[in-house]
Amino acid sequence: MKIAAVATLSAALMVGAQAAGESVYRNGPEDGRATNFFQPGQVHETTGYFQEWGDEVTLVGANRNVTEMTVYYATDLLIPTGNERIRIRFYAPDGPAVGSPPRPSPGTLLWDSGSLAVYTGWRSQRFPVPDVIVPETFIWTAAFEGPDGNPGNRIGLYYFGPPSVGASDISVWQRSDPGEGWSYNEWDYSNGTTPYGSFGATLWANGGPEGTIFDTMAATSRTEGVMN
Length: 228
Fold this sequence. Notes:
A hairpin with a 7-residue loop joins strand 14 (171-175) and strand 15 (183-186). The chain is globular. The chain is mostly beta strands. The protein has strands at 2-3, 5-16, 22-27, 36-38, 52-58, 65-76, 85-91, 97-98, 103-104, 109-117, 121-133, 137-145, 154-160, 171-175, 183-186, 198-199, 201-205, 211-224.
């Protein structure tokens, strides 16, 4: 399922307290690009597994010890429970080749954040990462918990593109249950201009940002499409 939306974003600025590190990947709203978001907050009806959506990214620079991540997401909650969560995972791209053309799927688990609180609105959120060593190209995923069972509640990831730091194509990974394996789709929402279809994220290595960065976002306008 997906929700299409178009938004003009404005951003509040947040001062980073961590020592300056290296920005090794960035795909965010700093240039005012329009965006869409998905609804990955679904649960497998039999196993209770929270569906994962993921993006394969290629980093720049010399450092590969990820120490901070910003994720761009939206929560639209008619009936918030206070139990809404996000779970982030890093994978090496060394799993079985799937799809057409075949490509390596997420394989070795490099990091699992566990369940982390999320907040309402159109936002970004900074998460500490405990010096996780990643390869130059790896896959990060997000799974949302909490909105199921409440009609009208929606949680999803922004997507932008192309990244301003690092690289990512328009392929999006999906897994509904570990027993069903991974699949990928190529989604281009560029309206015939610059292709984009990568989830919004910023990755820092060997420290964090210094000075000001984009953080909590507010949508000044948006036109929502139909969930299908």
